[in-house]
Design a protein that fits this description.
alpha+beta; Umud Fragment, subunit A; four-stranded antiparallel beta sheet; 4 helices; 12 strands; 34% helix
């Protein structure tokens, strides 16, 4: 209760000091406004253009106001705290306010994190080696989901709860094609074509071989609202090439992988 009372009193003191200056000369505090507003005011002739944000007069006025405010605040805080000496009251009140400020900042940061990870992003652990060497087993990834639209080449996390043999776990794969596109895979040359154009894939671990019995080639037409995904370690990846997985409904996409943050040695943007 004492802290709230101190806060109310100090706000009144601050207002009493600032308002008279502002009413007397509204442009006196123009240096406190954003650059765009200062520039527009200069264009309208409200005050002369200046090369520096604050003049010496501005700094002197601000310093004087700050000193007056500090002295008045110290007197008030001494009276409210009942300290025997002036500086004891000022010191104790300052420490209280410092703790409260840090507490407020911590609570705000925690609330922001909860909102971000509830609606915008999430943490995912890489499980397996299907994305070697781009991603490694047990790496921790930051995945962004808010407003995400899948794009060719993105690395995404898919919630495959509909695929029973995957145990409902999320899988990390690369988007090869989106809805309406066609995919042709030539295992003889380890080549992938999307809409007839050969993909440049420097990220794959090694040339792929036909481990799914596709008899040399595969042709897939990706339905609208779906994506075709593959792992960068093609020979160890269970992905859209398999009938068990197939094309992924966009509604099953948890988001796009933005960066790897653990282990620290692997920290960086994921591409």
């Amino acid at each position: 209760m004492l802290i709230l009372l101190e806060g109310a009193v100090l706000c009144l003191v601050f207002t009493a000091l600032i308002v008279p200056f502002t009413l007397k000369n509204p442009t006196a505090s123009i240096g406190d406004y954003p650059p765009a507003i200062r520039k527009r005011c200069a264009e309208l002739g409200i005050f002369p253009a200046r090369s520096r944000r604050f003049t010496k007069k501005d700094l002197l006025r601000k310093g004087t106001a700050a000193l007056i405010f500090a002295l008045i605040a110290a007197v008030i805080l001494r009276q409210l705290n009942g300290a025997e000496r002036f500086w004891e009251g000022f010191r104790d009140s300052y420490l209280i306010w410092l703790i409260v400020d840090w507490y407020d900042a911590l609570v705000f940061a925690l609330a922001a994190l909860v909102l971000i990870f509830a609606f915008c992003a999430r943490i995912v652990v890489v499980d397996g080696h299907s994305m070697d060497n781009t991603l490694q087993h047990n790496q921790l990834l930051l995945v962004w989901s808010l407003g995400y639209t899948p794009q060719q080449g993105d690395i995404v996390v898919v919630n495959k709860t509909t695929v029973q043999h995957l145990g409902g776990s999320a899988i990390v794969k690369r988007v090869i094609a989106v809805g309406g596109q066609t995919v042709d895979i030539d295992y003889a040359t380890s080549s992938v074509y999307v809409d007839g154009e050969l993909l440049d894939e420097p990220y794959i671990k090694e040339p792929m071989f036909d481990r799914l019995g596709a008899q040399g080639s595969t042709h897939i037409e990706v339905p609208e609202g779906s994506i075709f995904v593959m792992g960068d370690n093609r020979n160890e990846s269970l992905d859209s090439r398999s009938s068990y997985v197939g094309c992924i409904d966009e509604r099953d996409i948890l988001g796009k992988v933005l960066l790897c943050f653990l282990p620290v040695s692997d920290f960086g943007v994921v591409k």
